[in-house]
């Protein structure tokens, strides 16, 4: 009999069964509970150390040794991720003895990784000498470290990035391959040295930048949310947009943009704001899938919206050697046009469905006071940077400002309930920031593996040269190839690792044709972010679908439609760089594109939806889309022709609308609101 040892005898025809194995079952169960309890404490402590480490590194404190900073950040992040997603929880309906065994495996991995980091610290001192010899045991230890970081990434983000990393490691060893993939091949020693024991691999420049700059902004975003600053954003956005048809969706766009510029994750932004915004959008009459698509598109756009751009701007500034303020300035107008396009799509959809305006909630004096919890810390970021301080310092002082402003406002408003919640909110913020910092660190560490392989093999350069030769100098062809590469490579990845990974491969393709670095990086960033809403792996749309109670794939297609103009803007950045304000600026070019682009965006939005002042058929839809493309062509004559035709189409439509006034309107698609 299972779980029992039969010990008995037949007495008077009776079989006596003694469940002597129960104690063993109880012992196994008790050990599991102890392991789970202990792991939760260790995980939380590691997250706390990582969060406070980010604050220490960014603050006005003695400089931390680089090896300690990099090794400590990666080590703590791995601990958090392995214990957050233990092997014992990876499989359903696992018997407790098997769970116990899996916990033992995790403990071995953790202790082994700690030993690996100790070895790394010992070898690290030799890096600066430039000459060091690694023995086979050290190489095996390095391999174990690489595989552990990749495993932590798998548990956090799934299989896609780990498969890429493992493929890269194997690829580095085998060089006898056809075409652009061929290289000289590298020994086990050369591969591990480049990936683990160098400044171009796991502990390379991206990891250095993230641990030095990005982590403090993750802490800042979580701190800002903990102060209660984000709650007021939705109310303010609703008040500002309620007089526009489809106001609830517009308010979601504004709130998601404001929160998304701080949040380092499109998915995190969707989950954080979507639980409030999506039900409001549905309540106003939009379909479930459209509501989810709006939130996915808006939340994703925050990743390339100044002033903070989810900390990607700071990475970009370091990679291309430009000041952060230049990056923020370059991204400002394109981001505004992106959100204008979302407004246009929502307005056209509201007209199509016959959705009217809503009453605006009134903002109280306390609302305006609480809003300072958001605006003053964000202003502090910009002010510190304008003062010539480092991005890390800007993040640190913004955190300090956010906490001080919270105390002041809560004291002035006399909200005693807020004071009582301080301890629990602080603990939650620390744990949350530790988890988010860990996710970023392990993913960037894994990306370092790919960077090392690409650096060793020269794959990126070979790929760029091949595309350039095929394109035969055609910038447009190269951009189209780069766009599809960005959408493919970015699928399933969060913004920061996606950007780093994509720019590694796609950047050289465009750079071969003489495009400036800042334009290349903005192009890559846009499509890397838009991969989050592009099926079949639209992670932002998939995160919104359960909240909206809609089909994930349908939500993804809706998100692509809503973000349609976002697929145009990167091309505008490349062909009309004056829109960035910082490179190749000419007043005539700037004014000319500022006239055409909003009209083209409206034509695209109304053409996709099939509605302007009233609904129209497929012929006019195709005409509007074709006219928008013509308007943005590089040939001046086509630009003028497109503008004239576009204005004519809009003008004729408005005249027809005025002529229809007084006639009963037919709400053609009301029946489809709940699709």
Write a structural description.
This protein is mostly helical and 675 residues long. It has a domain at 586-675. Helices cover 72% and strands 1% of the residues. The chain has helices at residues 22-58, 66-84, 96-127, 136-157, 160-173, 188-195, 205-226, 229-241, 247-260, 266-284, 288-301, 312-320, 324-353, 365-386, 391-413, 416-420, 422-457, 459-471, 475-489, 495-511, 517-530, 539-548, 552-562, 569-575, 587-609, 618-631, 636-660, and strands at residues 10-11, 14-15. Strands 1-2 form a two-stranded antiparallel sheet. The chain is globular, with a radius of gyration of 28 Å.
Which tags fit this structure?
675 residues; mainly alpha; two-stranded antiparallel ribbon; 27 helices; 2 strands; 1% strand; globular; disordered C terminus
Average pLDDT, rounded to a whole number, is 85
Tally of helical segments: 27
Oligomer: single chain
β-sheet strand percentage: under 5%
Overall shape: it is: globular
Structural class, by secondary structure, is mainly alpha
Order of strands, widest sheet: 1-2
Describe this structure in a few short sentences.
Helices cover 72% and strands 1% of the residues. It contains 27 helices and two strands. With 675 residues, the chain is mainly alpha-helical.
List the helices and strands and how they pair.
Layout: E1 10-11, E2 14-15, H1 22-58, H2 66-84, H3 96-127, H4 136-157, H5 160-173, H6 188-195, H7 205-226, H8 229-241, H9 247-260, H10 266-284, H11 288-301, H12 312-320, H13 324-353, H14 365-386, H15 391-413, H16 416-420, H17 422-457, H18 459-471, H19 475-489, H20 495-511, H21 517-530, H22 539-548, H23 552-562, H24 569-575, H25 587-609, H26 618-631, H27 636-660
Helix pairs in contact: 1-2, 1-3, 1-7, 1-17, 2-3, 2-4, 2-7, 2-17, 3-4, 4-5, 4-6, 4-17, 5-17, 7-12, 7-15, 7-17, 8-9, 8-14, 9-10, 9-11, 9-13, 10-11, 10-22, 11-13, 11-22, 11-23, 12-13, 13-25, 14-15, 17-20, 18-20, 19-20, 19-21, 20-21, 21-24, 22-23, 25-26, 25-27, 26-27
